[in-house]
Amino acid sequence: MDLQRTKDDVLRQYVNKIYESIIKEEREMEERSDDEENEERDDLVEVKDTNQMNKSVVGLWNVQPVNTDSARTTDTEENGAKKREREDATTQEPEEKGTKRKTKKQKVSSEDRTPTSSITLSELGGIDDVISQVLDVIVMPMAKSEIYEHIGTDIPRGVLLHGPPGCGKTMLANAIANALKLPFISISAPSVVSGMSGESEKKLREIFDEAKTLAPCLVFIDEIDAITPKRESVQREMERRIVAQLLTCMDSMSMEQTGGNPVMIIGATNRPDAIDPALRRGGRFDAEISMSVPDQLSREKILRTIASKLRLEGDFDFKKLAKSTPGYVAADLQALVSAAGARAIKRIFRDLPAISNNNDQMDLDDDQQPPVDPVTKFLTNHPEPLSEEQLEPLAVTFADFMEALPAVQPSSKREGFTTVPDVTWNDVGAMKAIREELDFTIVKPIQEPEMFNDLGISGHSGVLLWGPPGCGKTLIAKAVANESQANFISVRGPELLNKFVGESERAVRQVFVRARASVPCVIFFDELDALVPKRDDVNSEASSRVVNTLLTELDGVGDRTGIYVIGATNRRDMVDPAMIRPGRLDKQLYVELPTADERAEILKTVTRNSPLDPSVDLIAIAHDERARNFSGADLQSLSKEATVCALKSALALKKQDPQSVSSAISVSTADFEKAFSKIKPSVSDSERLKYKLMNEQDND
Predict the structure, then answer these.
(1) Which InterPro entries match (predicted)?
(2) Which CATH fold would you assign to the domain 596-682?
(3) What are the pLDDT digits (tens) for 55-100?
């Protein structure tokens, strides 16, 4: 009994302390509310964080243990004192307290919501189509809402900007705000998420309540996909509540509820398919604006806009620079300009001391001086600010941009999204017939779309390259993309397959989503037979779903304008027949083993950078019987092995007599003979006959 009484006493003391803390907290809140009534108020509403009470309660539960021996003796006195204090607290000035509670309001925020960016829509280059859509669905409704109200048309409530990272979505939103000169509430979606239950929803309500107060205004939610995942796929209930709260908040932004002043919600994401479908309907995000990877003409405009602030020197070929930057988005081009500026500064550090005064020149010419970094040398020689005469000749040159190109990798390439390859037709030996077919099928529709549109025809939807391994199918696909200056996505069939249900189909859809954001684009599926095997021969339901997904995408359920598909396989008989019907991969090109003359042409191509001895006869090597079944890859291996043999011979000779070997090493006919003994053809006579018969059956 004594132990139970002791526990009750300790618990009673804890409860009394907690109750006392709550009374004290209420008093402090009322005092602060009374002080706030005397302060100047702005128009922005900000809710005070009331989580302190929870923290106080948690802190009180962490107090040190109480001495139980004295607990019972002091309990009566303490309880009496606490009771008197509570009575005093509840009876003290009841009328004044009631008045305070009636007049208590939320704390007013003094945060400035005027647009902070000075960029304008006219300063955004290369996105003329996007700006035209922005003017129609955002600028016009917000600037002249009375027109919409007069004719009875609803103003769009939200617009979703989507496109690859770095294409300028955030910058466009800032330019819109600057153009309208309206209050601009810009938030990052991840900053809304809180660990406390209910805090995330509360932040959203505060943001939209502030928007109602500031209306007309713009609300910009960057990376909106972070708080709007598809509710059927999320695991935590909090994520569902955040999505539901955002839907409710957007529904409350009607003109009737904002006092006739429009509020426009602008969302930005690079993953539009990850957003809950309930947001992408009328009354919420009424319009969607896609910002794709810029083409060559758009890149030229963007470069001219960015470089307009630079001090340029000499002939500046923006067209050539734009052609050298395929796959670059606006952020990548901005990084290129910055890298070119850094190159120019380094060049200035290196060159400027050469035109400095005589004392500096003497220091530079002193051979006794240890090597010094150019920047250190420059700072030592020029401790004072440069004069106008010294600054006048300094500028960024076109050479600085070309030197900076290798250092700036486009963001799409860092994500595994291949840009235009550096393979040209000059790197492809022979195969003239194949090249002509692909030139008309893919290259010309991209280069001359007006001619095809005027005649009402389009290029083939897709091309299937099939034949023995090593014949250059992948090389041809890369050369086609380079020749047409289209973006290039290379996909190896097996890498899209995933053991988790639905992931393989999602990966296939994602390939086409990327392609649609990078028009014109060539998608190359290597080892296609692994991705789309015959459904009759496949026991796995997952493989059938992958085939169905790819067939659906090829049928153009999504927009396929400007998207060209090239497939390559060694086993055409293993590919599902539905893939090669008209409208899909309807153009089939057989890439056979090269003839003797074609082998000679391929050898000339692969050895053009090799130091061949004048006695080497490439035509004779190509007509050699041992090279009869050699593919293009085999001939390249033969050339490489011959070069390695020449190097080994030179190293062995140098080891015996270091003075006997000259610096120039050449590949001789003997080296090719050694290479023939090591390199064997990839295709046997029986396999070559099988491919030949299969091709003849197609032609019959």
Answers:
(1) AAA+_ATPase, AAA_ATPase_domain, AAA_lid_3, ATPase_AAA_core, ATPase_AAA_CS, P-loop_NTPase
(2) Helicase, Ruva Protein; domain 3 (1.10.8)
(3) 444 454 444 444 444 444 444 444 444 444 444 444 444 444 444 4
Parts of the chain belonging to CATH 1.10.8.60: 296-353+374-415, 596-682
Are residues 682 and 468 in contact, defined by beta-carbon separation less than 8 angstroms?
yes
Full 3-state SS string of 251-289: HCCCCCCCCCCCEEEEEEECCHHHECHHHCCCCCCCEEE
Please provide the DSSP assignment of 552-591 as one string.
HHHTTSS--TTEEEEEEES-GGGB-GGGGSTTSS-EEEE-
CATH class as words, domain 121-290: alpha beta
Dihedral in degrees, nearest 10, Cα atoms 331, 337, 338, 341: 180
The whole-angstrom separation of Cα 446 and Cα 521 is 9
Q: Is 127 exposed, middle or buried (0-12, 13-18, 19+ CB in 10 A)?
A: buried
Is residue 520 reached through a cis peptide bond, with omega within 30 degrees of 0 on the bond before it?
Answer: yes
Query: Which tens digit of pLDDT belongs to each residue from 561-576?
Result: 778 888 888 888 888 8
- How far is it, in rounded angstroms, from Cα 390 to Cα 400? 20
List of residues 6+ apart from 671 with CB closer than 8 A:
642, 643, 645, 646, 649
Checking if the pLDDT of 652 tops 60, the result is yes
**Which pLDDT band holds residue 236 (cuts at 50, 70, 90)?**
confident
Question: Does 296-353+374-415 carry CATH code 3.40.50.1110?
Answer: no
Assess contact for 129 and 289: CB atoms under 8 A.
no
Closest CA to 530 of 574, 474, 593, 578: 574
Query: pTM for the whole thing?
Result: 0.64
**Max CA distance (Å), the chain:** 116
Of 205-209, 364-368, 370-374, give the lowest mean pLDDT range. 364-368
SS3 187: strand
The better pLDDT of the pair 201, 451 is held by 201
Specify the CATH superfamily of domain 425-590: P-loop containing nucleotide triphosphate hydrolases (3.40.50.300)
Position 375 scores a pLDDT of 63
Alpha-carbon span 95 to 146, nearest angstrom: 48
Pairing of strands 217-222, 44-45: unpaired
pLDDT in tens, 147-194: 988 888 888 889 999 988 888 888 899 999 888 888 999 998 888 888
